[in-house]
Design goal:
The complex is a heterodimer of chains A (359) and B (304). Chain A has 359 residues and is an all-alpha fold. Chain A has one domain: ABC transporter involved in vitamin B12 uptake, BtuC (Orthogonal Bundle). Chain A is built from 14 helices and no strands. The C terminus of chain A is likely disordered. Chain B has one domain: ABC transporter involved in vitamin B12 uptake, BtuC (Orthogonal Bundle). Chain B has a two-stranded antiparallel ribbon with strand order 1-4. The longest helix of chain B has 33 residues. Classes of the chains: A mainly alpha (359), B mainly alpha (304). The interface between A and B is large, with 46 and 44 residues.
C-alpha cells in the first residue's frame, strides 16, 4: 500500500512536471520560428511574473479568480457533469453583485458579504438551468452550458452598454460606475493591486479540498463521477448529487467573479469575463491538477504567472501574449497523455495473460 | 415586409447554414464511429484562418480552399492521435484543442499582420458564385438562390453522399459496425481504431469546407475567434438529427435560420439581444428535442 502511494505521488508530481517542460519546449520552438531568442524571452517572462514584487503581486491577484473557477470546474467534472459554462456563470454572478453594490444601500463588510451572496446565488441559478434541462429532458449539458456562455455574454454587455453605463469618462468605455469604497477589499499599498481577496480565495480553495476529501458530499460526488450506476446501487441519490454539485460549481464561479470585481476592477466592464479567459485558464489548471483543489491552487498561480509574463513579453520583446495561452494548452494536452502510460501498462498486462493462456 | 426581402432573408439563411451543415456532418460522421468529437470549433476556426492567409498571399480561390481544408484535417488528425490512439478523454482533448487553435490563430495574426482584430486584404478573392439564370423568370426564386457559392450546394450533396455511404457501401457498413461495438468489429477483422481515426480526419475535412465558406463565402475576412460557437451549434444540430445525415440538413437549416434572424432582426431589436438568439435557440431546440424523445420512449411502454 505504501509503495503504491509513493508511486502514485511520483506519478502525480512527475507527469505534470514533464508536461510543463514539454509545453515550455513547444513555446520555445514557436518563439524560435518567429525569430526570438527563447532563453531571453523566458527569462523576461519569469522575472516579470514571479521574481519582482510588483509582478508577483499581479500574478497572485490574477490567480485568485483563476483558481476559484478552476475548483468550480473541478467540483462538476469530478462528479461527471461537464460544466463548460463557468464563463457565463461568472458574468451573471459578477453583474448581479455589481448591481446590488451600486443600487442597494449597502456598505462596509456586511454589504460585501450580501453582494457576494447575491452574486453567488445568481450564478448558482444560472448553472442550475442547464442542469435541470439535462436532468429532465436529456439536453446535453456540454452544449447547453457552452451556448449559454455566448448568450449571457451578449445580454450582460447590454446592461453596461445602456442602462448601467457610466456616463463619465470619454464615453467609449462600456462599463458600470465604480462600487462604493467601503465595499472593496483592503489594498496593502497604492503601488500594486495586491489585496485581501487573494487570501479569501486561497482559504476557500483549501476548504474545498476538505469538502472533496473529508465530507459525505465529496465522497458521493466522486463516486458518481467514477461510476453512476454503482453510486445509485450504493444508495446515492444521483439527482440530488447532480443539482448539488452544479449549484456549488456555479456558486464558486460567481464567487470568482465577485473576487475580481470587489478586489481589483471595482466595476463591471464590457465582456470582462469572456475577454480575460479566467474560466478557461482555471479549467486548464484543474485538468493539469487532476481535480485536486490544492494542486489547482498551485497550477493556477503558475498559469496566472505565464499570463502576466506573457503581457510583459508582448510589451518588451514583441512576442504576442497569446504565447502564454499556447503553452497552457500544450501543457494540458501533454498532461492528459499520462493516461497513455496507464493504458500501455494495462495493454501489456492483458497481452501477458493472453500469451500465458495460449502457451 | 415585401417578398423580395423575404427572399433575401432566405438567401442569408442558406449562407449561414453551410458552415453549420458541414460541421454537423463532420460531427455525425464521428458519432457513427463511436467518437465524440468536441474539437469541431477548432477545426472550423483553423480552416477559416489558413484559408484567409493563403488567400492573402496567393489570391487564388482553389489554393485557399485546399489550404483551409488541409488545416481542418490537420487539426482533426492531432485530435485523432490524442483521442483515439492515446485514449485521452474526449472533453479534455476537445476543449484544449479549441483553446489552442484560438490562441494560435490570434498569435499568428499578430505575427503575420501585426494587429489583432480582423484580417482583410485588397486583392482577396471570394468563393466562386453561381447564379442560376434559368430562375430569372421569378425574381423571388432568383433572389433566393442569388450568389450562392459552389460549396453552399456541395454541403447538401455531401449529406446525400454520406447517407449513401452508410447505406450502400461495405466500408460504410464497417464504419457503422465500429459505432455499434468496437470490440465486436475488431473480432471480425475490422480495424476499428483505423476507422475511427479516419472518421475524425474526414470530419476535419468537412469542417475545413465549412470554415472556408465561413471566411470566404460572403465577405472575405477573418476576425479573431470568428466561428463563435458554431462548432457547438453543429453538435446540437447533429444530435437533434440523431446522427442521420439527411435529417441533419433540416436541423442545420433551422440553426441557419436562427443565425440569419439574429442578423436581420438587428434593425428592430437591440443587437445585444439578437446576437444571443442563435445560442438561446440552440438550448431551446435541444430541450424541445429531448421532450419529444422522452415522450416517444414513454409511449410504447404505456402500450405494453
Amino acid at each position: 500500500m505504501d509503495d503504491f502511494r509513493r508511486k502514485k505521488l511520483i506519478d502525480d508530481v512527475a507527469s505534470p512536471m514533464i508536461a510543463i517542460l514539454a509545453g515550455l519546449l513547444v513555446g520555445a520552438i514557436v518563439m524560435l520560428l518567429t525569430g526570438t531568442n527563447p532563453l531571453f524571452a523566458y527569462k523576461e517572462m519569469f522575472t516579470k511574473s514571479f521574481f519582482r514584487p510588483y509582478y508577483l503581486a499581479e500574478t497572485l491577484v490574477r490567480s485568485a479568480p483563476i483558481m476559484l473557477s478552476g475548483v468550480a470546474a473541478a467540483v462538476a467534472w469530478r462528479a461527471g457533469y461537464i460544466n463548460l459554462g463557468m464563463q457565463g456563470q461568472m458574468a451573471v454572478g459578477g453583474l448581479v453583485a455589481t448591481v446590488m453594490a451600486i443600487y442597494l444601500p449597502v456598505h462596509s463588510w456586511w454589504g460585501t458579504v450580501l453582494c457576494f451572496a447575491g452574486g453567488m446565488g445568481a450564478a448558482a441559478l444560472t448553472a442550475l438551468i442547464p442542469t435541470y434541462l439535462d436532468y429532465k429532458f436529456k439536453a446535453s449539458l456540454i452544449i447547453t452550458t457552452l451556448m449559454l456562455n455566448y448568450a449571457i455574454n451578449h445580454i450582460t454587455n447590454y446592461f453596461v452598454a445602456y442602462p448601467m453605463r457610466d456616463p463619465a469618462g470619454d464615453g467609449m468605455a462600456q462599463q458600470s460606475v465604480q462600487i462604493a469604497r467601503s465595499l472593496r477589499f483592503y489594498r496593502f499599498s497604492n503601488k500594486n493591486a495586491m489585496n485581501t481577496s487573494v487570501f479569501v480565495a486561497i482559504i476557500v480553495v483549501v476548504l474545498l479540498y476538505f469538502v472533496f476529501t473529508k465530507t459525505k458530499f465529496g465522497y458521493e460526488s466522486k463516486i458518481t463521477g467514477l461510476n453512476k450506476n454503482f453510486a445509485q446501487y450504493g444508495g446515492i441519490r444521483s439527482m440530488r448529487t447532480m443539482f448539488q454539485t452544479m449549484a456549488l460549481s456555479g456558486a464558486l464561479s460567481g464567487f470568482a467573479a465577485c473576487i475580481e470585481i470587489f478586489g481589483v476592477r471595482y466595476r463591471y466592464v464590457n465582456s470582462m469575463f469572456s475577454s480575460t479567459g479566467y474560466a478557461w485558464t482555471g479549467l486548464m489548471a484543474m485538468l493539469i491538477a487532476g481535480y485536486n483543489p490544492l494542486l489547482t491552487l498551485v497550477y493556477s498561480i503558475f498559469l496566472a504567472g505565464l499570463n502576466i509574463g506573457g503581457t510583459a513579453l508582448q510589451r518588451n520583446v514583441g512576442v504576442p501574449m497569446q504565447i502564454a495561452d499556447i503553452i497552457q494548452c500544450c501543457i494540458t494536452l501533454f498532461v492528459s497523455v499520462k493516461i497513455l502510460h496507464e493504458y500501455k501498462r494495462m495493454k501489456a498486462f492483458s497481452k501477458g495473460t493472453a500469451r500465458g493462456r495460449t502457451s | 415586409m415585401n417578398n423580395l426581402y423575404l427572399a433575401a432573408v432566405i438567401n442569408t439563411t442558406f449562407r449561414y447554414t453551410t458552415p453549420v451543415l458541414f460541421a454537423a456532418l463532420g460531427s455525425l460522421f464521428c458519432t457513427k464511429a463511436a467518437v465524440f468529437n468536441v474539437a469541431l470549433e477548432g477545426q472550423l476556426l483553423a480552416a477559416s484562418f489558413v484559408a484567409i492567409v493563403a488567400n492573402y498571399y496567393t489570391n487564388n480561390v482553389l489554393i485557399s480552399l485546399l489550404a483551409g481544408v488541409a488545416a481542418g484535417a490537420f487539426v482533426a488528425w492531432i485530435v485523432a492521435i490524442f483521442q483515439i490512439k492515446w485514449k485521452v478523454r474526449d472533453m479534455v482533448v476537445g476543449t484544449a484543442m479549441n483553446l489552442l487553435v484560438q490562441s494560435v490563430t490570434a498569435f499568428l495574426m499578430q505575427i503575420i499582420y501585426g494587429s489583432r482584430g480582423t484580417v482583410q486584404g485588397f486583392g482577396m478573392v471570394a468563393l466562386t458564385k453561381i447564379n442560376l439564370s434559368f430562375l430569372k423568370f421569378s425574381p423571388f426564386l432568383y433572389r433566393m438562390f442569388e450568389d450562392l457559392s459552389t460549396i453552399d450546394y456541395l454541403g447538401y450533396i455531401v449529406a446525400v453522399l454520406i447517407f449513401i455511404y452508410f447505406k450502400k457501401t461495405v466500408s460504410g457498413f464497417h464504419h457503422l459496425s465500429v459505432g455499434i461495438s468496437g470490440t465486436a468489429a475488431d473480432s471480425l477483422g475490422v480495424k476499428s481504431q483505423r476507422i475511427q481515426i479516419r472518421a475524425v480526419v474526414i470530419s476535419g475535412i468537412l469542417c475545413g469546407f465549412g470554415g472556408v465558406v465561413h471566411a470566404m463565402g460572403n465577405v472575405t475576412v477573418f476576425a479573431e475567434n470568428m466561428t463563435s460557437g458554431r462548432g457547438f451549434i453543429a453538435m446540437g444540430a447533429a444530435s437533434m438529427a440523431q446522427s442521420h445525415p439527411l435529417v441533419a440538413i433540416g436541423s442545420s437549416l433551422f440553426f441557419g435560420t436562427m443565425l440569419s434572424l439574429s442578423k436581420t432582426l438587428q434593425g428592430y431589436i437591440n443587437s445585444y439581444f439578437t446576437e444571443a438568439i442563435p445560442y438561446l435557440c440552440t438550448v431551446l431546440a435541444i430541450t424541445v428535442y429531448g421532450v419529444i424523445v422522452t415522450m416517444q420512449k414513454r409511449k410504447p411502454a404505456m402500450k405494453a
